[in-house]
Amino acid sequence: MACIEARALRKTYGATVALDGVNLRVEEGRIVGLIGPNGAGKTTALNAILGLIPYQGELRVLGRDPWAQRNQLMRDVCFIADVAVLPRWIRVSDALDYVAGVHPRFDRAKAKTFLAKTSIRLTNKVKELSKGMVTQLHLALVMAIDARLLVLDEPTLGLDLLFRKQFYDSLLSDYFDRNRTIVVTTHQVEEIEHVLTDLVFIDRGRIVLNATMEEIETRYVELVVRPERIAAARALKPINERQVLGGNILLFDHVERQQLAALGEVRTPSIADLFVAIVGNHASQAQGAAL
Amino acid sequence: MNTSSNAVTGSQAASQTIAPAAMAATRPFYWSLRRELWEYRIIYLTPLTAAVVFLFGFVVNIIRVRYQMHGVWPVDPAKRHELLASPFAVSAGLIMGTALIVGFYYSLEALYGERRDRSILFWKSLPVSDLTAVLSKFTIPLAIIPLLSLAVTMVTQFIMLLLGSVALLGSGVNVGEIWAQSSFFRLSLDFFYHIVTVHGLWYAPIYGWLFLVSVWSPRAPLVWALLPPFVVCGVEKLAFNTTYFLTLLEARFLGMQAPSMQHVSGSIQPMQHASGGMQMADKLVPVHFFTEPGLWIGLAIAAVFLAAAVRLRKYRGPI
Fold it and tell me: Residue A76's closest chain B neighbor by CA?
């Protein structure tokens, strides 16, 4: 069954269109990266999914209408919003007590096990913790909840490299299994590249790419080409081209790998390069249309 | 269509498997209430501080009075009463007044603070409905703060009685008199009645208004709480040259038209009436208070404000 199903999802703030008819289907057991430039509608989409804002169009999350049934939905959905939102005055042990008190699927012992691996003590107050530790605490609370969908909106914003790596490591090794779904947005795409099963690009409130990582591997090919073969490569209509030291890198969509291999070195593009090619093109086309 | 009906059955199956983990509906309410006491320690610290400060003043006073009296007891019963009983009324007024200020402060902060510090995103990530969240918060000024201040008042007065008795020991004065004059138990009953009726029920629309402002205001909730009533009073005066709204507000705040208030103001000096005890017992019959239309109109207004606050919190995010 689909974990998230959106049809013609639309959200406007006054004259600003944040979501412009989003169609999206996320199956269970996937790890989806929702990538987009600032103001593309990522957070708006997540807020709609979490029942935090009303919307137009059709949206079902785990079979429920998020806006009408937020509190029932939150038994099966967890989320960590873009910055630390844990109240600063709360004591770690009180936070555990509270979540255990209101959440039927919270495992206190599990949360304590996660916390034992960190330098967070139960007697600490959140305001005494560093930003990285607050995120660790939030992650410990969330991972101890037996939820079916976990939504992460820039969960590692402002954390140092070690914390960021550790965050995704523990998410993968201690939390994720085939029955859970994770939707994550981040600007540090290279860090989640190897974590994702699905990739969704969003730009100006529209989905511009929605594919599994396997599809991306077969569909997109990057070619490093030497100057003497550049004309032949350009004839195959790359969707993007950039220059590096000692040659050009061309990005192709739906072009046979063998055909390209004759012209130079072929490889799978990184998400970041793909993002620049697709969203960058999208942006320049839109600008062209406006002119 | 197919997928969505599949989705529904799927989630039903899942919720059946977690049935053992289901919890009583009152648990989120209980924990939300505890959460408020963790965050707003001012709720119990302020009445306690007021009590400690008052007890200190009381001790200073009895030492001073004993030194001045040299163990000579005033013959005039009215004077004796004032000496022994008035500190009890003052202590009650002080502690309950402090609690009232805390109640107003809390009401204005309850739904604003969580938006200001962004923690609303955390609270909304948990399966607690807006109704539960708002009602648990409303229980604080409506019941928790009044009852807590009552408990603190009673304990304070009991300590005062003990201290007073100890101070009078060996001074030749009958210790029993301080117990009789302070009429501790009857006053406690009076205070309880006053707390429930005035601090709880009569002020409910005020708390409700503050909650509505708290959930709505983009910033500076105090300004938004005071400005509309001020403007209404001004416009009414200007347009119709009347002051009905102001009178209405006065009656609400001072409780002048509330029968329970009249009753309590009489109870502070029970000994002015020869048979004060009997009269008090008669007045304690709450029929006057509960037949007062102002009470029910006020409660209806409070309910409207609260319903609006619940509805608005659904739309509210961090500021």
Answer: B127
